[in-house]
Amino acid sequence: MTSFLVLNGPNLNLLGTRQPEVYGTTTLSDIEEDCVAYGTEIGISVSCLQSNHEGELVDAIHAAKGTFAGIILNAGAYTHTSIALRDAISSVELPVIELHLSNIHAREEFRHTSFIAAVAIGQICGFGAAGYRLAIDALSGHLK
Ligand code: DQA
Question: Which CATH number goes with the domain that contains 131?
Answer without folding.
Answer: 3.40.50.9100
